[in-house]
Structures are given as C-alpha cells and as structure tokens.
Amino acid sequence: MLAPLALTTLALAAAATDGGETVVRARAADDVDNVRVDGGAVWDGGAALLLVPGATLARDGGPLSPVRPVVRGLSGPRLAVTALGLSLDDPAAGVVDVGLLPWGMGDVVVDVGAGAGLGGALSLRRPAPGVQIVVGAGSVGTLRARGRVAEDVEGGHVAGFVDVGSTRGDFPFVNDDTLGTGGPDAVRANNDQQRANVAAAADVDAAGVRVAVAASGAARRGGVPGFASAPLALRAEDALGAVGAQARARAGVVVVDVGVAAAGSDRRVFGVGAAGPTDSRLVGARAGASARATASIVEGATASLRARADRSAIVAVVDRDAARLDADATVRAAVGPLVVGVDARVGVGVVVDRDLRAAVERTVDGTAAREGATLTLLPQGALRVLAADGDGAATAFLGVTRASRAPTLDERYAPRGFVRGNPALRPEAVDELEAGVVVGTDAARARVVGHVSALRDGIVVVHKNAFELGPENTGAATRAGVDVGVALRPTPLVSVDVAASLLVTALASTGAPLPGAPPVALALAPRVGDDDGWLRALLAVRGPVSSTLFGTLTSPGTVLLDVEGRLPLAPRLGVLVSLHNALDVRDARDQNLLPLPGRLVFVSLEVRA
Predict the structure, then answer these.
(1) Residue 522, in any domain of the structure
(2) What angle do CA 582, 583, 589 make, to 5 degrees?
(3) For residues 77 and 68, what is the distance between their CA atoms, to the nearest angstrom?
(4) In this predicted structure, what is the pLDDT of residue 404?
(5) What does the DSSP assignment read for 102-150?
C-alpha cells in the first residue's frame, strides 16, 4: 500500500517535495546517491532510463503501449515514483508505467537500490524555463503532439505540460512462434493505443512561507495483444491522477514541511478473453497528509523527523460481481537521516501498516463476506558512510539498508481475470549491502557499485496457467551484481554515456533466476552537436529474462538501436527525426512473449520560445 520510507536518500525526496530543481543534461555516472537522465527525449522519454546502470524496460507492444521500468530485477510497487512532489504510484496496484507519467516535463533523478522504495525511486523534476511544442507523425499510423511551458515569475515558478497521441500499432509482421490460434490479426490489429498526459505545477514565496501546488493526470485506451499461447481480443482503459500541495517555513535552525495529497486510478479490461467475454474494472483512491521537521544540530550535521498518514480504498467490479475493499488508516514515521562527522548518514524507522479490511458484496447471490484487520510492523533502516578526497574528484561509499513493504490492495484482492489477486500474500523485505566509488571530473566520470541483497518473501507476478497471471511469494531469493556507469564529455559538442550491469539472482525454492531480472544489460549512447542541431544514438542490449518461478518460460535477449536527430530550420524552429529499432529486429519480445515492432520512423516539427 505504501512505498517504503526514503531513508538513505532524503535529499532526493526533499527536493521532489520542494518542486525540484533544474537538473543538468543526462549522464550515466553522476553522484553517489542517484543518476540523472534526460526526460525530454524526442519521442520515447522512457528510453532514457536505460542509461541508469541497473535499470531495464519491459514493453507491452508498439508505440504508446505500457512501459514498465525494472531496477535490479525489481519493478512495480517496489519503485517509489514522484513527479513535481506528487506520489504517482497507483493507489490500488502500485503499478509503475512510464507512459502514464508526465515524461518530458523535466529531467529525471533515479536512485537505484533499497531505501527509497524497495527497489529504487524515480523523481521527475520541474523543467528549465522555456516553451516547447512538438507535433509529429510516423510508422503504424502514429500521431502525437506535445507541449511544455515553464516560466520563472516573481517569487516563484509555474509550469505546464500536455502530451497526446494515438497509434494503430498494427505492425506488418508477427513471428510464427508468438502466434496464438487467433492468427496475426489477433495480435497486430489489437495493439492500437490512444494516450493523453497533462501536468501543472506552481510554487511561490509568501510572507516567508514557500507554497507549492501540483497536479498530474493521464489516460490510455487500447488493445491488449495477448500472450503467445492465449489469443485475446481484449481492450484496456487506464487512468492515473494526483493532486497535492506543500508548504515550507523556517523557524531558526528548524525547517518544517507539511503537505496534503490525493491520488486515484481507474483500470478496466473488457472484451473477449481466454474464458469468454469479460469486463473487469479496478478503481483505487488514496488521500493523506505528511509532515517533516529538519533541524541543524551543529555545522555539517542535521536531523529530521517525518510522519505520514494515508487511507486507501479500491472498488473492483468483475462482470456482475462487485467488491469494495477498504484499508484502515496507515501511518509511517521515521527519524533520519542523521548526518554526523565527515559524511555519515543513519536512518531508522518503522511503517505501521493497518492491514486490509475487506467487505465483499456479490450481486449474483447476495452473499457477503468480511475479513478482519491485522496490524503489520515493517521495520526500515539504513546506514551509509561516505569518504571523499579534498577536491571531490573521488568519493567512496558503503551502505547497509533494510526495506520492506506490505502487498498492495490489488496484489491481495484483484478480481478474477487476466491477473488474479492472492489474499495469502505476506509482506516482502530486502536486506542490501552496497559499496561503490564515483571518480573523475566533468570531462570523464565513472560510477561503479557492487551490491548483494537477500529478498525475503518476494512478491512476483507469474504465470499460473496459460491464460492467467497472479502474484506469489517467492520465498527467499538472493541478488548480487555490479552496476557501472561512464560519462564522457571531451568537448561541449560530444558526449558518450555507457551503462552496464551484471546481475545474478536465484530463488531458494527452485534455483531459477528471479522472474523479470535480466542477467546482463548494456546501454551505449553517443551524442554529437549543440542544443540546436544534434545527432544521438542509443544501443540497448538485454539478456534473456525468466517469466516463471521455475525458469521454464524465458524471453530471449534483445539488441535494439535507436537513432534521433534535430535539424535546425530557424533559430527557434527545427525538424526532429526518430528511428526506432533501426536494425529492424523482428524477433524481439518482452517478458510476456508479446511481439515488439520492427523498424519505426517518426518525423516531428519542434517550435521553441
């Protein structure tokens, strides 16, 4: 229900609460806590996450389809997501779909590792001042328009963003081994998408108090292509929104932040499924308040106390069955980080999770059932020690983190259908040890991190049969790996970013790899040019991915190349060309065996002001 506390990366969380800062252009090796990537890519902003060492993407088909980030083999509700200070994780399911985020609103800060979310955190910052309008079209009947405005005003900042698009998605091929009995049309023609994203934010100083407000909303409608063995004619509708306000005031050495926020989601799947006609809907809502006090103890040392309370609820409708699921008030509190001496940070805390109280009313036979509530304590803790040389050219760090989370409402009680909930799920937890070093200057910088972790009762969505998915506790699992990021800036006109990761995972019960965790990933991104005219490429390599607890269903690895460029026509006018899957790889599939399109071409006109 609630993302774990951000203990080791309070600086990141605080910046997001404050509305964020304008961040520099992406580089795969940044600082100790996080990596910053460019959220303003021409066509597919989510692809920038591939430049985060340890991160990969799982796609569900053609352009505008859902795209799920995977960080060190973990995804979904394990990732904390904020945009302009708003928490944008799904209130019902905790799903993270970058297609429903205001990508392009600004640059993105990514923390990899336990602490800020069980598996990491994504934070979208406010953009630099300016106006940008992009209108384009391309392969598979794709049309798209995007606009962004951000301005500094007296005592504050305002920003707005809109992105709308549609695609038929019926790419002209499907591999024979990915077809169900429905044939190519059942997969291709049911892969269309329509999507819209809007966001707005403002902050201002008034009488010594800084007030920030923000809102974000997104909706998508489209086909669900289906699995290799399950030809489906399903349609899906998804919506996600949030609104919130924060205020900051200073009294001597103490800074106090308070905030209120609300979020909602609406997910519907309808049409003809493997078991016949179906119509399922899941609506989630969350409202809450938060407070934080930060005090400067002595020079170079601070302490903070934070608390948050949320209430969540979902309503599920499956054909004629209706269920309303309520979560009692959930409170979380923590002390940290405490900065002492050179640069050591300690965070301790606990999530007090009042478990689900479920009341189910079935309109079919009038029966009702009620499940009792339980109290779950989810301890959180972190210790990170840093040592830097005098000129800041090298920093070494060592960190130990305990993070845990309760299952989401959807994971417990999703209605029957494509994904079925599991009321018997137990909370999952991660104990992680990290050690790394960041070395170099602005011209050449490298970040190398080794990590090992133990995942207890990990929750993974797996194939229960040929037609249905569901979450299961995997029991104990281990992860170990190395993440490497290199950023080269030899001249102002040339840059090269490299992100590479090796990951070894194993489930104690079966010995199989953790589902969704690629053993190897590599991204190479050279760029030439200035802001007016440029050419860049992104080569992404991903190893094979297991989709079951036994490793019996595996999606093969992929090698994909994207090329993008901008040709200036006038001082504030340019043509953008994006070539996706330039090598025309036609056997690429995601972890659910969904076919991905071949080569795609998009052309856009960009206006700046």
Answers:
(1) yes
(2) 100
(3) 11
(4) 81
(5) -TTSS-EEEEESSBSBSSEEEEEPPPPSEEEEEEEEETTTEEEEEEEEE
Give me the number of domains the chain comprises. 1
Pick left, alpha or beta for residue 271 (phi over 0 → left; psi -120 to 50 → alpha; otherwise beta). left
Distance of CA 92 to the CA centre of its chain: 15
Of 294, 378, 300, 291, residue with least CA distance to 336: 294
- CATH at residue 173: 2.40.170.20
**485 Rama sector, left if φ>0, alpha if ψ -120 to 50, beta otherwise:** beta
Q: What SS3 class is residue 468?
A: coil
493 domain-assigned: yes
Does residue 2 lie in a domain region?
no
pLDDT digits (tens, 9 = 90+) for 390-433: 676 788 888 888 888 878 777 877 665 556 778 788 888 889 99
Task: Domain of residue 444: give its range.
Answer: 10-608
Contact by Cβ (8 Å): 150, 126 = yes
Other beta carbons less than 10 A from residue 264's beta carbon: 18
Give the pTM.
Answer: 0.83
- Identify whether the C-beta of residue 370 lies closer than 8 Å to the C-beta of residue 391: no
Core vs surface per residue 58-90: b (16+ CB within 10 A) or e: bbbbbbbbbbbbbbbbbbbbbbbbbbbbbbbbb
Give the pLDDT confidence of 292-313 residue by residue, as tens digits. Answer: 888 776 665 667 777 777 777 7
Is 3 a domain residue? no
Amino acid occupying residue 41: A
